[in-house]
Amino acid sequence: MTDLFDELLPTTRRALLHRLAVAQSEGRTPSMVAGVLRDGRLVWSGARSMVDGHAPTTDVQYRIGSITKTFAAVLVLRLRDEGLLDLADPLGRHLPGTPADGATVAQLLSHSAGLASETPGPWWERTDGALRPELADLLEAERPLRHPTGRVHHYSNPTFALLGALVERLRGEPWGEVLRREVLEPLGMDRTGLLPEHPHAGGFAVHPWADVMLPEPLTDTGLMAPAGQLWSTVADLAKWAAFLAGGHEKVLSADTLAEMRRPAVGPVADDWTVTYGLGLQLVRHDGRILHGHSGSMPGFTAGLWVSEADGLAAIAFSNATNGPNTAQVAAELIALTAQHEPRIPEPWRPLSEVDEQLLALTGPWYWGAAPHALRLTADRGLELSVLGRGGRASRFRAEPDGTWTGLDGYYTGETLRVVRAADGSVGHLDIGSFVFTREPYEPAGAVPGGVDPQRWQAY
User: The Beta-lactamase-related domain covers which part of the protein (predicted)?
Assistant: First the structure.
């Protein structure tokens, strides 16, 4: 991209500021600050405040609530990628003695372990964590489960406290310290932490029937911190959004992040609007799929969304308990930016090198009588498209062993193999036992069940 597209157009900037101003005014929040990223860069920020001339900057800290869960999930996926655990492991294998011993790590990450939504009283978000000094204090002893494990999605804050404790157990040090060393420092997020540092916003409740305010308490939630305690800034969460979009070699790969944003609880119908991955919320908004998280704590609301297809992300904060729906505002900032300045495609460029063997795989293929086309893409990838009315499309990633792995659709995770004839020529393709031949029902013996020797006939 050239410098012409490094900043947003004035009409776009005004539309974004207008949306923010309406949210701050109608939402009756003391202040609000937001930002928009394009292709990993913060290209717009805006703020509104009840005090003229004192609007917050992108360096002012706000509580981000459950956006904290995305950080906790990344730490757990780092453990998995290092081979220290498997997502299919029961929690009790690594952190025994909790009511979730039989739930898998994946079920915990996707809120499908069946655990209660909240801790026993008093409400953990407004009380000191010292009231819950042990893991056993985070769930009711008599009825910790609200649903059978693995059966339904049931949002649970104590679940992420257990995941934070899992990180502490396997790393041998406090969760916050692991987060700082393994995630915040590599990403340059020096304004994100468990407790506020100046400058930071104060949290308020606004009276429902009068324009007066009440300060909300500032608490250290102790063991519940991984569920929602972090403070951050628009500038820092812009770095986090860029990471969630593309990964970082010192933190987590793009492939693992793609795994996190796939729906993990289901079944998910084609017309789904809200679902959950591995520590990430997924929503459909204005025709696009967003991943990220909403957040709230007493005195604060927050929202962060990434639109992979648009190369956009947005962040919004407010400092009122029942203030504007900042997650909705963040989603609308993405929609406004995409509407005013739709993504400009990268120019078409030819492949930098030609592999004749790969080139020979391209063109039409038939699954039975269903026509498909195979196209060669960058990095030795393959793209299978449907030409007729029946069949399944998918993209495939090249593997070192000469096979390809499906990236989407029905063939996600399945292996594409090239089966060669005795003379070394390409015989057929095998995708998870489905045979693709160069002609419909080719009589070369590769079609499962064989082909009628009389071939095609008129009836």
Answer: 26-338
